Structure of Sulfate permease, SulP family:
Amino acid sequence: MTLPPLAQYLPILDWGRRYDRGQFTGDMVAAVIVTIMLIPQSLAYALLAGMPPEAGIYASIAPIVLYAIFGTSRALAVGPVAVVSLMTAAAVGNIAESGTAGYVTAALTLAFLSGAMLLALGLFRLGFLANFLSHPVIAGFITASGILIAASQLRHILGIEAEGHTLVEILASLWAHLGEVNFITVLLGVTATGFLFWVRGGLKPLLKRMGLGPRMADIGAKMGPVLAIVGTTLAVWAFDLGEKGVAIVGEVPQSLPPLTLPSFSPDLLSQLFIPALLISIIGFVESISVAQTLAAKKRQRIDPDQELIGLGSANLGAAFTGGFPVTGGFSRSVVNFDAGAETPAAGAFTAVGLGLAALFLTPLIFFLPKATLAATIIVAVLSLVDFSILKRAWAFSHADFAAVSVTILLTLIFGVEAGVSAGVITSILVHLYKTSRPHMAVVGRVPGTEHFRNVLRHEVETQPHVLSLRVDESLYFPNARYLEDQLSRHAADKPELTDVVLMFPAVNEIDLSALESLEAINTRLKDADIRLHLSEVKGPVMDRLQRSHFLDELTGQVFLSQHEAVCALAKQVPGAEETAARREG
Amino acid sequence: MTLPPLAQYLPILDWGRRYDRGQFTGDMVAAVIVTIMLIPQSLAYALLAGMPPEAGIYASIAPIVLYAIFGTSRALAVGPVAVVSLMTAAAVGNIAESGTAGYVTAALTLAFLSGAMLLALGLFRLGFLANFLSHPVIAGFITASGILIAASQLRHILGIEAEGHTLVEILASLWAHLGEVNFITVLLGVTATGFLFWVRGGLKPLLKRMGLGPRMADIGAKMGPVLAIVGTTLAVWAFDLGEKGVAIVGEVPQSLPPLTLPSFSPDLLSQLFIPALLISIIGFVESISVAQTLAAKKRQRIDPDQELIGLGSANLGAAFTGGFPVTGGFSRSVVNFDAGAETPAAGAFTAVGLGLAALFLTPLIFFLPKATLAATIIVAVLSLVDFSILKRAWAFSHADFAAVSVTILLTLIFGVEAGVSAGVITSILVHLYKTSRPHMAVVGRVPGTEHFRNVLRHEVETQPHVLSLRVDESLYFPNARYLEDQLSRHAADKPELTDVVLMFPAVNEIDLSALESLEAINTRLKDADIRLHLSEVKGPVMDRLQRSHFLDELTGQVFLSQHEAVCALAKQVPGAEETAARREG
């Protein structure tokens, strides 16, 4: 299936042309369900990001529509998500005080920068960069973020002021304000949290017993937060708890998303550059894995580079309509999919629903206690916390374990940016380290055959004046110098050496650095009166070598097979031929 | 040859125990020759680095001795070199004015930081990091640096003030001061430059005709700068040219290297951190390639990690004895080697020679014109300029060409730090990009055999319900997601697909990210009613997989060979078996 170029960048042209009534019905039903679910979630994530509550709803409207136009997933629902909201609070909290105009502008600017970066990565097809965030690092980061988020929301449950972006800061700040606890808030918060935990575990079986199908029971259980919100809002209103010190959401403007402008101050842009990059990458990775999981169920196709364009447009949309950084969310996308969304039009209908809510429903949440929103956040993020990744990684490989532990520890101790940066850097360093020491084996002939095997693992024949080294990796700059080191070591250790044969059956590629290393090896061995030969060179590598002068300068020959090489280099005098057979392990 | 642990870190314990009279004679002769050559060179590089002249001599004394103790090369001569001196001038010039105490302190601090980094890299065996500076990037960087250095010295030849750390800045500054040219300085400078160019080309044949052996003629020609210095100093003294506006070296303290302290101000350390890192890596790479080239001629061995320790100690030495960053120099090491240096003791004797020079000879250079030093620098660095790397890279691979061009252009336009950083980043990005898209091939059976080949290159049999994908690379996080993308694409494009077989004959390793990708692939294919099988899995990879639950969850089987897989999965009804043979290219 090849698309015409425009449709490739505008997937809407593909599904839009074939849109029919059946799809419309599915999309409408899904949109209604997702809208009801998204209202509390949007308010809660705005609270988490330190933004005014309406910003959460605004951040779910334009981005959803833009993703519907440019994104490739049929079911992905874009909007504020927990981890990205936490990262927004951490980044913007360094620059301005929550609740100020500067804070909102910085959040818009962060969304703008992140959108521009995602768009650029998509247009230049650089999505592969996200690969360098390894699975264990992401798992560790999300677990640690979940803990940070839950800790940061405790203040709303306790009804006290507290701040901080690291676990230590948050806990110290909570401790310092512990005397100011508001017990009515605690009662509301703990009840809401308990109810929501029960909803997770108990509501679904209850709904099933009441006769709902398993899918609808699942969706019904996801509506729990709406019940908690309605219940606690009514309680605050009925008993006038706002007057008794319970923090409530208060006045929220009744308006469609406003037109807003991010700041283009170079200072602010440079301060937000690294956070925006990290948010973009984390958001993209989270989103694409949700999109691929859902697409697979219907054998649909996700184009990672186009996804970057979709998410980039969504964030740009958020920047110009009063939002903050967004990405594809897991739970909302699953609800959307399960509720029967057929096309991205479901997202557009959701946007209409949220727009109506922003216009007409905001007076109803005046009495909504912040503790309830905090409870929905805590219950949602605690499901992200999963330390079993440590056990899995330990069992599987210590390198992976190191990357996870570093990520978890640094996220908790130094905050999200330090944590995810350290995770990426650790992964890349471990990767570079492995790449820079490719497997190489000194080989000898299996007696009576034309096969050559590692001298350390097999009983094979070698000759003291010939060194046969099999290179089990393509040669390029990260490992070129290692080859030089290995050969100079062998040359220094074996005074009787006169011929070196490099076996290249596994070398798929040679770059200019490796070519220059081979030239240096050739010259140095020549200075030491050792000839250099090659054997079993693949066609494309031979083509490459012929584009340089290397083959003219080579002191030895290029043999088609290692057997041919060893026969040609065998000492003519039979007495001089020696069999050195070793066996280890 | 395995060394006891202490001797591994102190190579002097190895060669020192076996030191004999023959080696002593060779070392002494080499030391005398190198000392004579180093005096003008040290003064010149101090000028280039913006330091007082004596600092160049100091920077060659303690570092040489420390390298002799800790380094592994028998012939490497450590001291100020052109490229590192230029980088020092660029880094320190951003912080203080040349000629001030702050400038000297910053240079000492730079040497200290660079020494500490090299030492740390060596102790933690992180020398592999230097591999990520690819050969073409280094070649491009050195060529561009040579041009920058030559341009920066023109002011001394013209006798005017000029400054700047990029080609444009330097040329603009020269142009602005062109009215102030001192013609006597120009006469001296141009004569010295012409003489030194003649020395390069003409002195060696002349010495040979006079009966010297080729090696001694070579060494004699390297003494040319001493003649130029003596001649122009005498001219200045005789005709009192200092009074006529010729800039001279002037008073130089008569002293052994003083004890100095770098600054430990956190501000200064953080400003110099990145420059120190770049200087360390560039210096290490330059030094190790000289060391390996010379060691090969005598089948000696260089340990890269121990070299880091040697160079780190040398730079720490420079920091505490009035020097500036140093590394192993090419021309001085070659002279040392050719003059017959047998052990690092030659370096220690050179240090004694330079100490005597610092104590007794400095009054003799009072009248030395700076133009002569500039001439020696220009003639030395122009031999580094070699644009043929562009042609070589273009012919060999466009990726390498891109890395070289970026490095040369950015070094000239934005200076040394931007140039070398851009080069490293470009190399790593190109590498990551290549790594993240490993070669994979859909394969089919060569008719009548048990061999499987790429369907795009060979006429082979496939079945529409079975996809056989051969993975030609180890699976780890940079490419794990690519495999997911490829499989979701195939699953989306082939509605009749029921079985996928991943062939792993070339997969040497699987990390946790790849395992989780395989699990995701397994789950997603299951959702799409496609079974996942593996074939030709290597022993170590199988061991890894057995440490996880993947094999329990796998929807299909693990086949020993691809042939076995295809036979087992063939549709039983003969009519359903279809032969789809394709041939392209």
About this structure: The first strand of chain A starts at residue 78 and ends at 79. The longest helix of chain A spans residues 266-297. Chain A has two domains: 21-404, 440-576.
